[in-house]
Amino acid sequence: MNMEFLQHYWWILISLLGGLLVFLLFVQGGQTLLYTIAKTDDERNLLVNSLGRKWEFTFTTLVVFGGAFFASFPLFYSTSFGGAYLAWMVVLFCFVMQAVSYEYRRKAGNLLGEKTYNIFLIINGVIGTICIGAVVGSFFTGNPFKLGEMNDVTWMSPWRGIEVLFNVANLCLGLAIFFLARTLASLYFMNNIKHDVIYERSKKQVLYNSIPFVILLLAFLAIILLGKGYAIMEDKSIQLVPYKYFHNLLEMPLNTLILLIGVIGVLFGIIQSILKPHWRKGIWFSGIGIVLAVIALFIVAGFNNTAFYPSYTNLNSSLTIYNASSSLYTLKTMAYVSLASPIVLAYIFYAWRALNKKQIDIQDVKDDHHAY
Predict the structure, then answer these.
(1) Domain segments of the chain as ranges
(2) What DSSP state is assigned to residue 227?
(3) pTM above 0.90?
């Protein structure tokens, strides 16, 4: 367990958490469909309560993702949160709005009313997904910062992170994540809700949202694979190299295979759900596929001598898994703690199965005194 092994090990764990987070964003995607798939208050309450059984998984995964980044690559945490704090504050505020909305949406005597909380959920679903996708896109396109001698960060843009939305590639990925979340949510509704009308409407939404998702994702991949990437040279300097991320795919064939399997899984789940009548398993094929695809993209961004959080205003301030990581002692200690991860994942699987033993219907919501 030397330093280099631990740095790669922790980047793989970060990649796994990132993949799980993107999959669980189906909750946010479902919130944006409250007035599209649902046409009555009963149908809307059914959708909210279907999502309400899972929203804490997404929130917790986001917190763990941030915590793991802080512990294993603290220089990224201090640079990004210290410089691009407006972007992160927008994301966090959206998730706070979500938590408040699920808690008080139908509570007796709430001041804002049910419709207002529905709007909050939609805001969380739209802004939260797009911003997260755009921030991840900047792992490939770069950010405007400079590090001082004591690793103090100077952010070279007055927008403090919001500028990620001004980059075409970042915006393509942000919108791709948005439409992906809506696609996964529709697949989830088909699997989790016992309601023929909602099933058919969800099936249509799978088609309507998967098409822009695929187009936007291909546009993002074309931009980064055919453009320049941030490479670590032999003298440890950072330079822009043509086709760097494309070369990463060629030079890491196992990771490329994982990416292809993930993409095939996503497309299989979508196509089968559209073409096959009464098929409800699309969420599992597409969900597992997107986790694998995101893991592969994170590895492309951080492995093979690549800067995972590059600076386009000061190349040598770019962050890599080598210069941004914690100490050997910290990484090793946390590596032992991480061995408990399978137990946590097993508990999540158990809790998910317990909540999804049977499909939810409108009567379940009406009979539940703790319904959202």
Answers:
(1) 3-367
(2) S
(3) yes
